[in-house]
Design goal:
It contains two helices and 26 strands. By secondary structure, the protein is an all-beta fold.
Length: about 300
């Protein structure tokens, strides 16, 4: 039975701005051990954090080579995307190491967003914003000539492209059972969220890929005037929470629109967090907002 939007978001008016002062805020992640929210100010080349205990905001790190999306790994470390270094990296207690920085002898474009599956594999999108947008990285070329979604093992092993037909892959998220991968295509011509079936069963000994991603299809398309989807999250019931130029939009697992919340700034990304995991945090242009919900991230 499809939930009413009020079951997920009891009070849209409870949206609260908790931090501001970024140039373009992105890549939020909740850090339960420190009870902080971490995010990127990409053009500012810094990582910010908000402390739940006292509401203060400070710089977690500076000169970070234009980091963007991030996620927590199973061991509590942070896996994040670096536009400037054109790599996916791991931050473990402030010590940053490279997971992957090239495929088939050429560099990535500018890894943008990332998820870690239950088996520890790392999945990330690779559009070109960091080599084409002056404030988001360094000028460069598309060395493999396209924009793909890649998958690798926890330490970068078995790296391979898994989605090759999304025009500008951006945000991504798994369904609760990890049998569906949602990928945002933020191309100005076809801004949609696509869905792909994930089959973890190899066809036979030695066959590749061991995980097949197939049956790509349009999941939802934002309405005219809503702009481009960017970051997404999926809750434990399979609902897809999407950013938009006007705010937050929530879709059911079947693609039906459940409801939306207006946000005063263009929303870039979002994550669940807080002590019970039900607070939704949204990065939106210069600011960060929080919204009480009755949902919880599918990966928590």
């Amino acid at each position: 039975m499809m939930p009413a939007f009020s079951d997920l978001v009891p009070d849209p008016g409870a949206l609260e701005r908790i931090a501001t002062g970024s140039t373009w805020a992105e890549g939020p992640i909740w850090m339960p051990a420190s009870r902080t929210l971490r995010w990127s100010d990409i053009p500012g080349d810094r990582i910010m954090q908000w402390h739940q205990d006292d509401g203060s905001v400070d710089e977690y790190a500076t000169g970070v080579e234009f980091t963007n999306g991030r996620t927590r790994d199973r061991d509590g470390s942070v896996v994040q995307c670096s536009h400037g270094n054109r790599q996916v990296e791991r931050d473990r207690d402030g010590i940053v190491s490279v997971i992957v920085d090239a495929w088939d002898g050429v560099r990535f474009n500018s890894p943008n967003d990332v998820v870690v599956a239950r088996d520890g594999s790392v999945w990330f999108t690779d559009p070109a914003y960091g080599i084409t947008q002056p404030r988001e990285g360094h000028p460069g070329t598309r060395e493999y000539g396209d924009h793909w979604v890649f998958r690798c093992g926890p330490d970068g092993e078995d790296l391979r492209p898994v989605v090759l037909d999304t025009e500008e892959p951006n945000g991504l998220a798994f369904s609760p059972d990890e049998r569906v991968l949602y990928v945002v295509s933020s191309s100005g011509d076809r801004p949609v969220i696509r869905a792909y079936d994930v089959d973890p069963t190899p066809r036979g000994p030695g066959d590749a890929p061991a995980v097949r991603v197939e049956n790509g299809r349009e999941f939802v398309r934002l309405a005219a005037g809503e702009g481009v989807p960017d970051g997404i999250r999926v809750d434990r019931d399979g609902n897809v929470w999407s950013s938009s130029h006007r705010g937050l939009i929530v879709f059911g697992p079947d693609g039906a629109r459940l409801g939306e919340v207006a946000v005063p700034e263009v929303v870039s990304n979002l994550c669940f967090g807080g002590d019970d995991g039900t607070t939704l945090f949204l990065t939106a242009t210069t600011s960060v907002y929080r919204l009480p919900t009755r949902a919880r991230d599918a990966v928590s």
